[in-house]
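Protocol step 4 of 5: obtain the predicted structure for the target chain.
Materials: sequence only (see below). No template structures provided, no constraints applied. The aim of this step is simply to have a reference model before the mutagenesis design in step 5. Sequence pasted as it appears in the construct record:
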Amino acid sequence: MTKRIRKDALAIFRAALKAADPVEAVLRFLRRDGETLVAGARRYQLADFDNIYVIGAGKASAAMAQGVEKVLGRRVTSGFLNVKYGHGAPLRRIRVHECGHPVPDEAGVEGARRIVEIATQAGPRDLVLCLISGGASALTPAPVPPITLGEKQATTRMLLEVGANIHEINAVRKHVSSFKGGQLARLVHPATLIVLMLSDVIGDSMDSIGSGPAVPDRSTFADARAILERFGLLARVPESVRDRIESGARGEIEETPKADDPAFRRTNNLIVGSNRLAVEAAAVKARELGYKPLQLSTFIEGETRDVARMHAAIAREVHASGHPARPPVCVITGGETTVTIRGAGLGGRNQEFALAAALDIAGLPDTVVLSGGTDGTDGPTDAAGAIADGSTLARAVDARLSARDFLDRNDSYHFFDALGDLIKTGPTRTNVMDVRLVLVGKP
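Step 4 output (structure tokens):
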């Protein structure tokens, strides 16, 4: 029975990945009606534009660009995209440039410079299509001088290590960047700008997706300062970063553009895909396989281990009382948790989730937990996540592995690798955060 439930869990996860396909996401919102381009609810006459440029960044941007080329074909003048290493895709008129993620590198700086050049060269009779997906913030490093890439890298690394969430990381990055927080819209103005976004943030807040390069920025220098102070990083970040944040908080540096900025008058921001769509597709597949799907939330965030224990507690309650539903049941959640690094092991939030949950579902029959990143990459590993069941700990003991020790070292990758329970999809070229499943089969 458990073997079949594990197979079902993998099938449900694959259904979620399919729903997040970037090409289909773009084609749902962008189409051509003769010489009219339809983007969401707006219509644009192609005759009004001398050039159409495509720029963007993110793990899914190359695949999104395939959708754009299907719609516009030879009408695309040229383009340039920054993508994560290994996340490219074949394109005819748009150049794909691979660079570092989650920590920016010099290749990212070079690519961001090229994107800025295209944005600034666009005139009033040009159209710029910008494609943004998960990872865009790290993939467009454009630090404001005298801040160097190394100093920005160090700041990002510190925020990741203390468990700052994506909103907090982006608030800081926007205020040490010349690209993020609405500043791309300033660069493109007065050209027309259409932004297609594949959301990888809780609640699909546009100003957080890719650090909102073409969206009015709600965060301020004061917010960035408060975040650094809350995590005890204000005195630890590089001096150039601290000086800029402090100066901005005192009002000595111009803020990122807000809603009344003229740069947004010819800007159309559209979310074309999200975690919710992936979770809904998972629910459909679960029902097809005979489970009662329970979509709890796509707003799940917080410390990974705590979230894992909550999910495991639901599995135990299903066994004990038949609540919130009698088995067979499939609990589905989305969102993105964070890991506070305590050890020197290898893993990611999804693998750590599965390991922490495995400790709490030990011995439960016909119970499977799966957690996977829709981008196919969990932390600094080649795995998307991991799968565990009620017998995982017993199998680990037979293999002389201590689950608790591996968890304490943040070494979930090597734990699940030894058991053959890593989920490896390869780069999916999409990214709409994580999908977590708890399946309890019928006794």
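Step 4 remarks: The chain has a mean pLDDT of 95. Residues 65 and 131 are 7 Å apart (CA to CA).
Proceed to step 5.
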